[in-house]
Amino acid sequence: MTYILAIDQGTTSTRAIVFTTDPAGGVAARATAQEEFPQHYPASGWVEHDPADLWSTVVRTTRAAITRAGIETSEVAAIGITNQRETTLLWDRATGAPLHNAIVWQDRRTSDICGGLRDAGHEAMLTERTGLLIDPYFSGTKLKWLLDTIPGARARAEKGELAFGTVDAWLIWNLTGGRVHATDATNAARTLLYNIGNGGWDAEICGILGIPLALLPEVRDCAGDFGTTEPGLFGRAIPIRGVAGDQQAATVGQACFSPGMLKSTYGTGCFALLNTGRERVTSKHRLLTTIAYQLDGEPTYALEGSIFVAGAVVQWLRDGLGVIETSQSTQGLAEAADPGQDVVLVPAFTGLGAPYWRPDCRGAVFGLTRNSGPKELARAALESVGYQTRDLLEAMREDWGASGTEVLRVDGGMAANDWAMQFLADILGTEIDRPASTETTALGAAYLAALGAGVAPGPAEFQRGWALERRFEPTMGATERQSRYDRWQRAVAACLAV
Ligand SMILES: Nc1ncnc2c1ncn2[C@@H]1O[C@H](COP(=O)(O)OP(=O)(O)O)[C@@H](O)[C@H]1O
Ligand SMILES: O=P(O)(O)OC[C@H](O)CO
């Protein structure tokens, strides 16, 4: 039996999971440890994490998972890291001390910097080279903000005294005791600084943003050599052999290895990735072009649709409005909702992501009556996630063609909700496949690490091990499907117009 440890450093919590691998390609979870950590909101639209929290939760959950698995550190063949993407850190190479809190992907503070880039006419060039759009979501403008704001930071960066990284690079730096400053191609592809066509940091873009190249980590394959952990941390050195951003790791965990295969992860937000193989498809509908994974120096590309509010709308009903007790209760409430009411909720709490990219848009509820209550709101919340996914799939079908988009593999916390998944199948007119393994993100990181350590078979065998738990078939008639979707589009248009 071989053990692989996956670290999944997410937006709200850190998980460490010990997986077992067998020569036939099976990878199974054996023990898990999870810790939440505080979110910091220093100003409206700002979201930060304390870098020390990211690091300490990784150390504690890793130790706990190894203990719970009942194994010795020496039995762990490799570590795989997967992480919340785009979140930006800057630290001192000599001391390892961060210069600022991590600026989280959701943070909107660089809207003005983005406006300036757009006004200067840089968008077409940036999109062509990076596959991204100009939006505060990505790391590049966050890093510029840090260098502009922290006194002396740019001069120190030019002298090579500082290091930038997304969360993966921050963890690799700390795990290796500051010996390795590296990231993987999928995380690099989210910075707005990386040319996904030629696979290198783009000096011209860095020049435009005033980012010294000396700050940037080395970019490696997803199943690559990222050094070994400091022996003192876990009792013995463990090789780090797999790294990928969390949505890309989920794509691997869902075994979406063939062009046309599609997965969607429903956590806080929702991120749909369509494997486009070696083809770097440029979207006509403001989807992102990104790297799904990179093996043996060869990138496999994806089209990505990013929705900022999915499970978060359920959290809002629970923690903001206080009209539901648990996320799970939305299933029973939606089943019991009045079929005669047609409440539509547009959860544009922090603007709309793909395919609209309107950070200024705000949410609304339409169709309320005196009898509307928690049941109808719960149903509208779950439906909003289905409608937003349809927005993405409509765009993907036009960019890529329908082939492959007739089955969607789902995962993430909200994928456990049967009502939401049935509505998704109905409104998309697409079969929805929910896998037996729900920890798809960590599973993907574990598989990449096993591949990097030479203890896993190739993708074809891993793909054969993917197991279905339940398939949701569309049952809604075509006329109803279209009239409901038309109503959603009118609701979005109204929000965009206000
Ligand atoms: N049964 C459920 N029905 C609806 N939403 C759910 C359910 N279970 C979890 N969620 C939502 O899913 C999210 C948690 O999923 P998770 O994959 O852990 O997210 P993340 O990794 O972004 O923290 C929360 O926003 C929660 O409201
Ligand atoms: O941490 P999650 O699961 O909410 O994922 C966040 C994404 O990587 C942001 O791009």
UniProtKB/TrEMBL annotation:
Residues 263-452 form the Carbohydrate kinase FGGY C-terminal domain. ATP binds at T11, T12, S13, T268, G311, Q315, G413. Its EC number is 2.7.1.30. Gene3D superfamilies: 3.30.420.40. Pfam families: FGGY_C, FGGY_N. Residues 3-253 form the Carbohydrate kinase FGGY N-terminal domain. Key enzyme in the regulation of glycerol uptake and metabolism. Catalyzes the phosphorylation of glycerol to yield sn-glycerol 3-phosphate. This is Glycerol kinase. It comes from Amaricoccus macauensis.
